Amino acid sequence: MLKTAAACGRFCMLRLLNMKPGEPTNELRSYGRRKGRKATPRQATLLRDLLPRVAVDLTAPSGRLPAGESGGARKKLFLEIGFGGGEHLVWQAEHNPDAMLMGCEPFEDGVIKVLDVIDRARIDNVRLHMGDARDVLRWLPEASIDRAFILFPDPWPKRKHQKRRLLNGGTLALLARVLKPGAELRFGTDIGDYARSALEAFQREKRFQWLAETPADWRARPADWPETRYEAKAHREGRRCYYFRFRRA
Fold first, then answer.
1. What is the mean pLDDT of the chain?
2. CA pair distance 126, 67, nearest whole angstrom
């Protein structure tokens, strides 16, 4: 029985779900194009020279996690899947110097933006994977990630394409394996249907606890969750944004 107004707010959001058994087991590509404009000479140099130095080496043993320039391991390991223009990834790296930030992004233009900041600001606690994040999730050792972010992923709004959405039962199972007990997973979207389908997947994955007591917990962005360019665009176009936080049990 719901006893508090806080619980009522959470219950109302859960009532939006249309629970269906099962989850697609075939893993489809969850992103669109890989390249945009042709790289400038400087950008081509960053891709050729800098990216190999900061790339996650998936050929290395999975227990050999990325280290800083000095070779020392960071106290924490954060993972952002689909970092887009990199604003959030860089902010987290700058505000968490004791953490190593691993960012996955298949779109070359986004990777170039982060490489440019790494080069100009001499940031040494960011490592990148220009490809499918699920390859990294399978490579990582169990219980190795302290915090993970999936912020405003490709919504695939057409019904026939929704099976390509990244946040589904399969991806959550991979994340549950690599997140430490007590670690936090953050998910943001400006698409109400995606919010519902994601919560549906989380309800089936019992290793995650939704950290929401009132509607404000999923309507307001936390102070340490900086705005991305995609979120700003959603606000300009009048779309409501949803901010979900989950704890690995």
1. 84
2. 9
